[in-house]
Structures are given as C-alpha cells and as structure tokens.
What we know:
By secondary structure, this protein is α/β, with parallel strands linked by helices. It is built from 7 helices and 9 strands, in the order βαβββαββαβαβααβα. It has a 5-stranded parallel sheet, with helices on both faces. It has a 4-stranded mixed sheet with strand order 4-3-6-5. A hairpin with a 2-residue loop joins strand 5 (about 70-80) and strand 6 (about 80-85). The longest helix is centred in the last third of the chain and has 16 residues, at about 175-190. The two termini are about 20 Å apart. The structure holds guanosine-5'-monophosphate. Guanosine-5'-monophosphate binds near residues 39 and 76.
Amino acid sequence: MTNFGQGMMIVLSSPSGAGKTTLTRMLSEKNGNFVISISHTTRTPRHNEVNGKDYFFINKDKFQELIKNNSFIEHATVFNNLYGTMKEPVFKDLLKGKNILFDIDWQGAEQIKKKCIDFKLITLFILPPSTKELKKRLYNRENQDELIIKKRMSQFKNDILHWKDYDYVVINNELLDCYNQIQKIVALESKGLKYNYDE
Ligand code: 5GP
C-alpha cells in the first residue's frame, strides 16, 4: 500500500527502441495523476526533440556541477552520454500525491531502489517482441544511421541481462496491449496487490 497521500515511483526501463518513451507518454496523457520525470542529459538532441520537454540538454561541465551539488537521485553513463534525474521536482511531486514515471536505464533503477526506500516503487522492464522488430524500430527512429543502430543493438545484449532485477517484465508487441498491461499492474500495485501473469 502507498503511504497516505504520497505518489508512487514507476520505473520503465528497456533496451533502446523497445517503445518505452511512447508508453510513458501514453500513461501520462491518459492519467492526470501521472507525471513524467524529465531527465538531464549531455546527449545531442535528436531532430524532433525539445529542450525541457524530452530532456534538459546540458553540457558536461553543468552536469558535473549538478553531481557535485548532490542534485541527482541517480545518474549514469549510457552510450557515452551522461543522464540523470533531479531530486527536487521528483520529491515535490511525490509529496503532492503524483505518480512519477521514470524512463531510465537499469543503472538508474538500481540506484533509485537503494535510495528512495520511503516511497513506493514499481520497476518494469519493457522488451521488444524480437530483435528483428527492435532493429526495424531503431531503423525508423535513428534516420537509418547504421552506426548508431549497430551500437544500440550491441547494447541490447547487455541491457537484457538485467531483466531479472525488475518487478515485472512486459513485452511490447502490440502497443495498446502493453499499455493496458502496465495500467493493470500499476492499479493493482497501488492497492498493495501483485499482478498475476496467468490471469
Ligand atoms: P535515449 O538517448 O535513447 O533517449 O536514452 C538512452 C537510454 O538512457 C535509455 O535507456 C533511457 O531510458 C536512459 N535514460 C534516459 N534518461 C535517464 C536518466 O535520467 N537516468 C538514467 N540512468 N538513464 C536514463
């Protein structure tokens, strides 16, 4: 059961390209009480990304300063770029009763698990239905940049090793089915119940 009046932390991790960004957006758009945590990163924005909406894009010096000031709940290096979640906005929203969605990798999930024990936490690992489908999705997203696709596919092999550290594993075959499954998990967990895969 969640602490009275407090929101839950919902971590969605997955190999890059499995669809979790779309899923977090759907969850927040369809549930007024869900807020997406916007990370800080040193990565270069993609052509369709907006500063302050998709990420806060900052340089390495600024990122190091935030680490020094202990401003992050968690931070990690992914694909040679730095990513981190700021403490202040997250704790503020949790105390207001909002549920926070984190689109972060397994390193971040691990750190949050250790640090945020006062808040209810659910961790979900999203998987693509196949490596072939993942490659196709990356191909569409990354402007057919073969080098990036190659890097992300090789990272995939490392990422999936961490599935067993999560509370739930969800396969994103059909987006809507996957979304409904996550909704069910969150609804049950908010009542202190577990989702049963056999149902
Ligand atoms: P992308 O560059 O494709 O947006 O994200 C690359 C990876 O970094 C994804 O697996 C994403 O979940 C992860 N990521 C994004 N923001 C954060 C963050 O704040 N912390 C951590 N640990 N990982 C993040």
